Amino acid sequence: MHRRMAIFWKAMADGLLLTLSITLLGWGVEGQGNGRGKKEVSGGATVYLGQDRDIWRPLIHTTVNFSEIRSIKSSFQLRTFDPEGVIFYGDTKNGEDWFVLSLKDGIPLMQISKNGILVSVAGGPQLNDGKWHTLEVSNQEQFVILEVDGSNRLVVGTGMLSKQEVLSGELRLAVGGILINKEKMIVQFEPQMDGCVREGSWLNLTIPWEVEAEELWPCYQHVQPGSYFPGTGFAIFNTSVFPIEADHGFKTELWGDFSKMHGTILSIKAPGQELMFTLVANNNTQEVTLTFGGEKISMRDTFKRLVITFQTDLLQALQDEDQSKTLSISPLSHPGYLTTWREGRLAVGGLLGEGEDVVGSEFLTGCLEKIQVQGRDLDLDLAVKQPSISSHSCPA
């Protein structure tokens, strides 16, 4: 057993020594062009990783010759509430050898491919707390060190495997995405991260990075946990992913300042039927209206938590866990509705349209601090959603 572990760490350290020491590079001059119609940014720029694009495509990328590399230490700052997503990627030999740094369950995850050997390593503190964290990666003699906030360290000894290899050619580096087929990675994860990177210092290089967008989206100065809807999109789930049992009902819980919301918070539609349920906030009238079929109930928007329970013969809305503020609708005009909902769609932040297309209207503007369905947190990254939604953070 000890020998197997030694072989594992031996292979891992070899990949870490080579790849980590060359992967973190410099960003260049901000706001310039490159003659190919692409904007360029510098390493000191703040980059919002969740910007609209194909979810695996890098947001910014660059290429450098090995002859230009002089430093073995790089650092940057990361802020996120998102537990999962890609931060940056580097490769040599046009993708034959590669390195990926991401978050998985809130902690750093490094995946490496070197000479056909695949290694994944996870460790360090929880980083998805919404605070700025400084990450520094360095190669010091026979050790590769990942340091977080100047103290928390993940140290990997390389021993005799730190033999020198003459490196030539080009190194590609990307932030917010990867340049290989995702199936090559050992550990699969959701790539898009609702987070920000800033103050990058990458091997003391000043090489410009190309931006895969016309403009970089800004990061909010202060953030809080939640999902922010800017009034331009919504998230859709197939209700088949939720355990809906007619005997036990279907429960949705929402947290937030409803007095600061405007637009459709929830809508549910069964296949082949008219829109059956909506929850809409009106900032002008300061009311939240729940509609089920042709029946409506209105509530003042002063509450911070709303629990909606769908049962076979009753729909209940409970405000702030105050039983005296329970409102009910009898769904007698829709017998068996829970059964039909099993193959329907649930939208957060917008009004579902006709048909099965991802088309909506009356979008929500505001922050939902927390969303639970059937007692479990709802991760909007798992939905079909418009990219304008910040899935894990709201402006504070």
Automatic annotation (TrEMBL):
InterPro entries in the cross-refs: ConA-like_dom_sf, GAS-SHBG-PROS, Laminin_G
Stretches of the chain forming a coiled coil according to its record: none
Gene name as annotated: LOC115023861
Location of the Laminin G domain: 53-219
Gene Ontology molecular function, alphabetical: steroid binding
Cellular compartment(s): Secreted
Recorded GO CC terms: extracellular region
Domain of life, source organism: Eukaryota
Function field: Functions as an androgen transport protein, but may also be involved in receptor mediated processes. Each dimer binds one molecule of steroid. Specific for 5-alpha-dihydrotestosterone, testosterone, and 17-beta-estradiol. Regulates the plasma metabolic clearance rate of steroid hormones by controlling their plasma concentration.
Signal peptide: 1-28
Name of the protein in question: Sex hormone-binding globulin
Pfam families: Laminin_G_1
Assembly, per entry: Homodimer.
Keywords, alphabetical: Disulfide bond, Glycoprotein, Lipid-binding, Repeat, Secreted, Signal, Steroid-binding
